[in-house]
Design a protein that fits this description.
Helix content is 44%, strand content 15%. The protein has nine helices and eight strands.
């Protein structure tokens, strides 16, 4: 996986090819996190029910996952369902869960083909048994894959994650002086993974929506007006190019946008 793989995949002479050729392979983000927003507005603009926006967004998920894997990124995290989303109408929530199960069944072969390891972060135990079964099946079937790690944040909240990590620390009998930032980070759902270098939010909203609050402390944030169902490979490549043009400071001297800290 890498830029040669991407160039062999994108149509020759296309805008996507031009974008790929601009990328610096040595400065790709290790971890990209995306807040997938705008499904409801996409549907409303077309006088459709909100669930049709969620349905259309599956194509964007498929395109984004495959593009990131072909680029050779280490981790991709997509924000699929927050702890606050349970407040939505029951019919909408039910449809989201059906779409999730359908996606996992349909895309499992693709995940295997591209050596992608599937993982879910969030309060999984609170989900319905049929949903947990599908999630576990996908995780188990891809557990031996060594390519990109694909996290789906489901029944997820950044504050809830921090609370859960604190509870783990307390349950382990850890003394206060033992709880360093590194140790606490290892207790999060993403323990052992690199923090996001790039956080993308679609639909133009300027907020982080309780997503990876600890992990995005030094992430570069990229906001696009594109609604999630319209988000494609081109938009992802544009976000990565913008990332590569920034200087990352980490509170100190400016440095090029290198992956990781």
């Amino acid at each position: 996986m890498g830029l040669p793989e991407m160039l062999a995949w994108v149509p020759p002479g296309s805008p996507d090819e031009a974008l790929v050729r601009e990328l610096d392979p040595a400065r790709l983000p290790a971890h990209v996190a995306i807040i997938m927003d705008g499904n409801g507005r996409w549907a409303a603009k077309r006088y459709m029910p909100r669930v049709e926006g969620h349905r259309a967004g599956i194509t964007s998920v498929r395109d984004t996952v495959e593009t990131c894997a072909r680029l050779g990124l280490k981790v991709l995290t997509l924000y699929a369902f927050s702890v606050e989303n349970w407040k939505r109408p029951a019919t909408e929530v039910g449809t989201l869960m059906v779409l999730l199960k359908r996606y996992l069944r349909m895309e499992l072969a693709t995940l295997q083909k591209h050596d992608i390891r599937f993982n879910v972060i969030g309060r999984v135990d609170d989900l319905a048994d049929d949903v947990k079964k599908e999630l576990l099946h996908a995780a188990e079937r891809t557990a031996s894959n060594t390519g990109m790690l694909f996290n789906i944040a489901l029944n997820y909240g950044g504050r809830a994650e921090i609370v859960d990590a604190a509870r783990r620390a307390m349950a382990s009998g850890m003394r206060p002086e033992q709880l360093t930032e590194e140790v606490f980070g290892s207790l999060l759902y993403t323990g052992g993974q690199p923090d996001p270098d790039l956080l993308i939010r679609t639909s133009g909203e300027l907020r982080v929506s309780n997503f990876l609050l600890w992990q995005i402390a030094y992430a570069e944030i990229y906001v696009t007006e594109t609604l999630w169902p319209d988000f494609r490979r081109q938009h992802l490549l544009e976000a990565i190019l913008a990332f590569q043009k920034r200087e990352r400071r980490y509170g100190g001297i400016a440095a090029p946008a290198l992956a990781g800290r």
